[in-house]
Amino acid sequence: MQIITLTTDMGLLDHYVAALKGSIFSLSSDVQIVDISHQVNPFDVSQEAFFVKSCYHEFPKGTIHLCTVDSEPVINFGSSSSGSFPSIMLYEGHYFVSNDNGFFGLLLDGNRPEKFWRLDDVMSNPNMLKFPIKNILVPATIKISQKIEIETFATESDYKRAFSINAVTEENLIRGNVVHIDHFGNIITNISKELFHRIGQNAPFTIYFRRKEYYIEEISNTYSDVVEGEKVAIFNSNEMLEIAINRGANGRNGGASSLFGINLQDIVRIEFTPRGSKQTLESLF
To answer: How much is the pTM?
Structure first.
């Protein structure tokens, strides 16, 4: 059975998600739908890419990921670079169906896909644009699930480049940003485990966030490596630096974001103190 994931900014209060799923099942009953999220901030393609990028690799290859944030096409005839076209991407054995509004570039983050196609004949019926997810993206998704050759309904093309904010480095310093705050109030940054070890080279370090008095000087393996209510830094399942409160959560006793006053895009920096440096020598006296 074909797995199709859904990521939308439709929320769950209205009927839109049900209508979308109904349209999928009307075209094919031989599919299994998995919800990634329907709570993406409206039109926030960057957040959509973050959610999908964080979990698509957990699904088997051949999965189709229907990503629908900001899905209305912008067709600028004679200017392919300034429009946003319904498209399909094959990347690491997964299919991604979305509007080319920057989503693909954010998901790839500088990497290259195996193939990329633009859907043909989008403007043949203007009524399709009234609900482009259901009328344009869903039929393309079902055709992929039915193993119909993509070249019969789409043309190979290029995609819009878009790059997410990356952590920057200086000598003995990494400066990153908060890229997501999850349901528990945990702070997820764009500082990877690989970057941390490459720049730090096992030197002592201090992680600073928000204020000078907010800092952590070790990376834990799990949240429970510290006592309940204590701040903790870990590399999460995606190997990105995360700052949390052990058993803390927004709406309960406070998550890290609310307790420390951390917001999206706030700076998190890691200062390394290599052995033999001025700071290390001063600590001996």
So the answer is: 0.87
Q: What is the pLDDT of residues 19-45, one digit of tens each?
A: 999 999 999 999 999 999 999 999 999
Pairing of strands 240-245, 231-235: antiparallel
Q: Are 233 and 256 in contact (CB under 8 A)?
A: no
Angle at which helix 16-27 crosses helix 138-145, to 10 degrees, equals: 40
**Cα(136)–Cα(119) distance, rounded to whole angstroms?**
9
C-alpha to C-alpha distances, 219 to 93, 244, 264, 272, nearest whole angstrom: 33, 11, 22, 13
Q: Which backbone phi and psi does 255 adopt, to 5 degrees?
A: -90, 175
Asked, for residue 106, whether it belongs to a domain, the answer is yes
- Token pair 């690491």 is found at 92
Contact criterion met (CB below 8 Å) for 73 and 131: no
The parent domain of residue 227 ranges over 168-282
**Separation between Cα atoms, residue 138 and residue 115, nearest integer Å:** 19
- Determine, yes or no, domain membership for 104: yes
**Cα angle for residues 121, 28, 155 (degrees, 5° grid):** 25
